[in-house]
Amino acid sequence: MMDLQTRRRFLLTSGVVGAGALAAGAGTLGLVELLRTADGARAATEGKLVVVTLYGGNDGLNTVVPYADSAYHSARPELAYDPAEVLHLDDRLGLNPKMQGLKKLWDAKQLGIVLGVGYPRPDRSHFRSMDIWQTASPVDAVPSGWVGRWLDGTSASPETAVSFEPVLPPLLAGESRAGACVSPAGLKLPNGITPEMVGALGRSEPAEPALRARAASAYADLLHVEHLIREAEQAPKDPAGQELELLTTGTGRTSSLGTQLALVARCVEAGVPTRVYSVSLDGFDTHADEIGAHESLLTRLDDALSGFVARMSRTEAGRQVTVVVYSEFGRRVRANASDGTDHGTAGPVFVLGPRVAGGFHGEQPSLTDLDDGDLKAGLDLRTVVGTLLDSVLDADPERYLDGFQGKWLPLLRAE
After folding, report:
1. Origin, by domain of life (predicted)?
2. Of 169, 232, 245, 382, which cross-links 258 as Cys (Cβ 3.0–4.6 Å)?
């Protein structure tokens, strides 16, 4: 599992976040400060991208299941799903049984599935593979993420790209510009300190010095952020019964994907000028006893994504949002001796939202024509990234992908 400590180490060792980017604003940005940048008129017409990273290496074969392929069942007899369990998408492929929400989006033609995505000369290291995905540079190590390069090229301000993760991902770091990291953690008060005390500190007084007024405003902002997070976690259900957001899970105040997406939704609805949001879900390194853990993760993913898309469909600004979901690699075709799967190569990428042209893109890799036991990628990840740059961010893909020329995918409906 690529936990927070590991991800911090990944950030430090990736070499992506340079001094220029840090000086340009990489780091923390207050949620209240972000909401103050709102410009509803512009936000309602601009394409927005939400990048969902599944850290650990998601098992694509048990996510988009080749239920009709005998090679699937023979390679992983204890992990393979019975065809009757799978949510059929066509006569060959189906979704994991825990992904009922995404199946509804598929039926509504709001879910596109890009099959067999990878990159040349696969690397099974979490660090290197995630670095490749976030920089979109599979051959040479580069000091910038692909969104970061777009920020460089457009001289964008930090709020143009925002991460609701504990650390700034290399994805959002350019060489001269960088996105902002907005912590979704709630307010933690020392023993004996109450919200009422903080509220009193946040009340301004007439004719007080500017620095004192600024400090008071910061205290008030803390309480407002806490209110927004509580509001996100306790949001009502969609009329169809689908939860719009998940509560935080586990011990402590670590944010769930549902809460991160709820904060994205709040920003979109408020009209902030952010064009790219980065959120994540950990835990996909399923080397042992995979079925239970993987199903739990996919349930959380399905609840969060389907609720978010339903919420985005209700406003004009929300209907400009496209979500892309990827992981650093898939898993090996054959199960291991611990009822799990080991690091593999290619896997599916989900693209979803009101603007998405639903359906399959690319071809499902063969389960018998393998590369040392691994799937052969049919699509280069830069083809997916280039399509998103072109169709969502209105950018020239070749400029930000070191001249890579691809046949961009029809992931969005023609307007």
Report:
1. Bacteria
2. 245
